[in-house]
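Q: What changes when adenosine-5'-diphosphate is included in the input?
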Amino acid sequence: FTAAVPFPLAQYGGRFTVTMIPGDGIGPELMGYVRNIFRYAGVPVDFEEIQITKDSTEDVFEKALVCIKRNGVALKGSIESKYGDVNFSSRNATLRTQLDLYANVLHCRSHPAVPCRYPDLDLVLIRENTEGEYSMMEHESVRGVVESLKVITRRCSDRIARYAFEYAKRHGRSKVTAIHKANIMKISDGLFLETCRNVAKEYPEIEFGDMIVDNTCMQLVSRPHQFDVMVMPNLYGTVVSNVACGLAGGPGLLSGQNYGEHFAVFEPGTRNTGTSVAGLNVANPVAMLNAACDMLNHLGLTQHATLISDAINKTINEDLVHTADIGGENTSLDVVQNIIKEVQQAMKDGEW
Ligand code: ADP
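A: The predicted holo structure follows.
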């Protein structure tokens, strides 16, 4: 799904140029795997790599923003946020707001061969990505008293609600559930809920419901199949997305897509840096590879996307090459080599 306005895509001589931001932790090694697999699959994408880490200067960050604006599309790892450093706002959140990437889409699907409490999971989480609790306006008004502003606007609530209903319509989905805490945050979440209700009236063919966020977390782990498309404000989105990723097998599998009117950024769904597993050849490369496939679909390179995602799915579900996070004993490189083997086999068989 892309926004209504065509994206400016950088393309020279039939090849696309995409910004690559490896980020901290396992980001750089995962990007190496993406490059390697793209080479074997003959993907016509050139990466313009700009490394932003937690220690990068403001200049480098600005350069990365300009680069994404020029290319229209980026593949991104997660940049560590410095806890406790009040003068440093999260680069990840700032990047999303600066590019106005207002919609985060996480498609949560289970894999038949990955241990999962519920088979056949198929949920789509749509998260408002630019405001709410992430407005980054906090201050200590008097010593020991901190105020943190949560900003909910009708405009941003309306566009994310529309995004969710349009997504449901285009993907043949039957239900949208708005997630909120309007019983406590009566004015802010009240506005979000009211706006979703109003948008729902324009889509009578799609069922609409709403649920309080705490109940949602409980329902997700006990009866997840009741959900189809879910739409929610920013902070609930990150919490509920992580619950959904956990249900489907953890941080190593699912991808997340960020869209605005003009730009798109693709990344692993849980946005972890995975610092504790970096450099050990144990990180699951699948979430980043799925993000790369989302990016190829977005660029219209659907045959290449299918070639690689079929190879990923065969590696997980038929060849059973699994890293430790999903209960296996294989290394990151075992997974990557198997995906390359499946890509080469499919190309030899002329399956695409
Ligand atoms: P940390 O910085 O301690 O690694 P994160 O919040 O980045 O923490 O990640 C949460 C947990 O998920 C950690 O245990 C991390 O090792 C794990 N993790 C994140 N990404 C992956 C991955 N791609 N493969 C395997 N484990 C991962």
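Observations recorded in class: The first helix runs from residue 27 to 40.
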